[in-house]
Amino acid sequence: MATATREYHRGSPTDLRAPCPVLNSLANHGLISRSGRDITKDSLLAALNEIGLASSAGKLLCNIAFKVHTDDAKNPPPGTAAMGFRDPDQVNDDGVPVLNLDQVGRAHAMEHDISLTRRDRALGDHMRLDEALYERLLECPREKKAFRIWDLGRYRKVLYAEHARDNPQLVFGVHQQASACLEVAAMQCVFGTGSRGGVPMEYYEAVFRDERLPFEEGWRPRKWMFLVELVGVALCVSFWAL
Ligand code: HEM
């Protein structure tokens, strides 16, 4: 398979990275531009397909992500969206719309508070992995070998109570909760070992710590996935998270 032959190496300090460990893994394997710059929608879609994400989910995400960003969520001008990442006229030399990975963390778009491994925007670095949060995440599964959706749902509930207490500027409404549950669901659907299995601990370590796809640990991309599965799993996560 083509993906398995894509060499992994971490970006240099000048390369751009996102607050999303999976997008960073795609860049570290060269499935999208390694520099994190000038990423086209087609290249991102192809990369998401290679890791087995439901193609409709990939299209949906990319259609939003490649919109020009506006802070006016209520009345977005045509062609813009609050969740979009691009600047106006951000295109490559061929005139094709592109985005950079650091734009994935832009304010008032998709990035949100109460991340699993990033600090809240008002309290610290919302882009990069926080070691203490990461160590805590690894403690959350009851069975130490795998992350189950109920482990992560319950953990999100605990985190919410802590952040509500400690961050007076916390922003975490229905949209942010839905995104957070969808992120957990996407991990389960892409890296999980079947409907009854969770995501092996070492897969989480590879993705979050190394920003690497866990091929060495035995993971292989799924051939089929449907959007409805992702949404269903996200609803289950929210059952434990609320
Ligand atoms: C176009 C595709 C994608 C976009 C635009 C995107 C965007 C984002 C953004 C903006 C965040 C930051 C959220 C936060 O503040 O915590 C994030 C985090 C995250 N994403 Fe992605 N993502 C994409 C694909 C994926 C896929 C395919 C997966 C899983 C297979 C995934 C898993 C995650 C996880 C687990 C986090 C949470 C990190 C944390 O809480 O520390 N993402 N993503």
From TrEMBL:
**Which key words tag this protein in UniProt?**
Heme, Iron, Metal-binding, Oxidoreductase, Peroxidase
Its taxonomic placement starts with: Eukaryota, Fungi, Dikarya, Ascomycota, Pezizomycotina
- Name any one GO molecular function: peroxidase activity
Every Heme haloperoxidase family profile domain range: 4-232
Q: Which InterPro entries match?
A: Chloroperoxidase, Chloroperoxidase-like_sf
To which protein family does this belong? Answer: Belongs to the chloroperoxidase family.
Tell me the domain of life.
Eukaryota
What this protein needs as a cofactor is:
heme b
The entry's protein name is Heme haloperoxidase family profile domain-containing protein
